[in-house]
Write a structure and sequence with these properties.
By secondary structure, the protein is an alpha+beta fold. The chain is built from five helices and 18 strands. It has a six-stranded mixed sheet with strand order 1-12-13-16-18-4. A five-stranded mixed sheet has the order 2-3-6-9-5, with helices on one face.
């Protein structure tokens, strides 16, 4: 790693608290980022063809809201969007929200992955689970792997569930001078996760015997050459957020979120397909002066590393192999 960058725990980024809640039996969960009493400036960039999201319009530069109070990353696809009500209730109880007369209205944005059917399609995150995630955020000790929004995440699904692999949630943060940048990501991709240093596949599409990697990108090309390109399954989405103590406007944060997608492209292939709903939030929680080009480049870097950790920290579960299954002894 570049010695100019100092790796830090993501919890060292002030103001943000991260909490998970999950149902391991039914392979679903959610992860909340609480953004403090004053909220945080935020931007969003969506590159996939099938996102499941809530309150995304708030993050457009022309919208009136200057800050939001929480981001919820969740399983459950569109059904899971109900879970934000639990975050709303928690924040209301804390007196946090946008003042409208005598009422405080918390602004909560949300994006969901498709994890329905890994175990069951009938159980998905709800308001009670999201409220529990908020309570767990008070401890601010987030884990990685099969937790939170990454509980039911899988990768390498180009040819169906039989040759897919288990994935999860990753965290990573660095400091450059006074500037801090961290990433949270739940990797539920159609494609493969690749090591950012070696380009080797860490997790993804398996061969039929499940003993080696088939390589999703090459498989896609081979099927296309044989006039047998598969219909993209709409069961994928990688969702994440980058958090910085750098001072940026909503418009600048939308650009930083866009630059962060370079991290997706480096670590996941194929990515941003019509079968994915890939989304990234960018959150500014501080006042450190910083250059947007440096911040966007740094955001892509931490996202790459968080995706790598999502693969490496996840054990085999639900009958699926994981990167740990292929770890060199």
């Amino acid at each position: 790693m570049n010695t100019i960058l100092q790796e830090i725990p993501i919890t060292e980024i002030e103001q943000v608290k991260i909490g998970h809640a999950q149902d391991l039996e039914h392979a679903t969960g959610c992860t909340v980022l609480l953004l403090g009493e004053e909220g945080a400036r935020a931007g969003l960039d969506v590159r996939g063809g099938g996102p499941a999201s809530r309150e995304s319009e708030l993050l457009k530069p022309v919208a009136a809201a200057e800050v939001i109070h929480a981001v919820l990353l969740s399983g459950g696809s569109a059904f899971g969007l109900d879970a934000a009500g639990g975050v709303m209730r928690y924040l209301e109880e804390q007196g946090i929200g946008f003042a409208v007369g005598d009422v405080r209205v918390p602004l909560v944005c949300q994006s969901d992955i498709y994890d329905l059917g890994l175990v069951t399609a009938k159980v998905r995150p709800d308001a009670a689970m999201a409220y529990e995630a908020c309570r767990n955020a008070e401890k601010n000790c987030p884990a990685e792997g099969n937790v939170g929004a990454g509980t039911g995440a899988t990768v390498g699904k180009l040819q169906g569930a039989d040759t897919a692999m288990n994935s999860g949630l990753g965290l990573y943060a660095v400091q450059l001078g006074e500037l801090k940048m961290g990433a949270v990501v739940a990797v539920n991709a159609l494609g493969d996760i690749r090591d950012p240093e070696t380009d080797e596949i860490l997790a993804g599409l398996l061969t039929p015997d499940r003993r080696s990697f088939a390589d999703s990108e090459k498989t896609l090309y081979r099927l296309a050459a044989a006039a047998a390109a598969p219909e993209m399954p709409n069961t994928n989405t990688t969702i994440g957020a980058v958090i910085t103590n750098g001072r940026f406007t909503k418009t600048q944060l939308c650009k930083i979120a866009a630059m962060t997608h370079n991290g997706y492209a480096r670590a996941i292939r194929p990515v941003h397909t019509m079968g994915d709903g890939d989304s990234i939030y960018a959150l500014s929680v501080g006042e450190v002066p910083a250059d947007i080009n440096v911040a966007g480049t740094l955001a892509a870097h931490v996202m790459v590393q968080a995706i790598r950790r999502a693969a490496l920290t996840t054990p085999p579960m639900y009958g699926l192999l994981s990167a740990q299954s292929f770890a060199k002894q």
